[in-house]
Amino acid sequence: MLRPDEREALVAAALAARERAYAPYSHYHVGAALLLADGTLVTGANVENAVYPLGICAERVAVAKAVSEGRREFRALAVASETGVAPCGACRQTLREFAEHLPILLVDAQGRVVREVDLADLLPYSFSAADLPST
Length: 135
Ligand SMILES: [Zn+2]
Known about the structure:
- By secondary structure, the protein is α+β, with helices and mostly antiparallel strands.
- It is 29% helix and 21% strand.
- It has a single domain (4-122), classed as Cytidine Deaminase, domain 2 (3-Layer(aba) Sandwich).
- A 5-stranded mixed β-sheet has the order 2-1-3-4-5.
- Helix 3 (89-96) links the parallel strand 3 (74-80) and strand 4.
- The longest helix has 16 residues, at 4-19.
């Protein structure tokens, strides 16, 4: 369960990260904030490229930042966008690598939580390391 102050901090961090999005092509700015088990926040913003397929979503930037710093225990995620959209399929699978259940706050540009969902509901019957044959 997220405390009210944690929710507030997550939303604020996602909104602030959205301000740092690099989206000169789509002009679609997205920010993400991960709440880690130790209470710290790791943020991400979408980073586009002139070679369009190389663009990376805000959620995966946040995951890569956290994991590359040795932090893999996620408690919650907030994603801020114009209307509060949900993570794309690639981001859902990336998140699933580190959490089966993860509360996700979908935040619009005004900072309203338009929806709160669990990762397991966004990615039912998910594939994970548990599905791989053991060696
Ligand atoms: Zn994505």
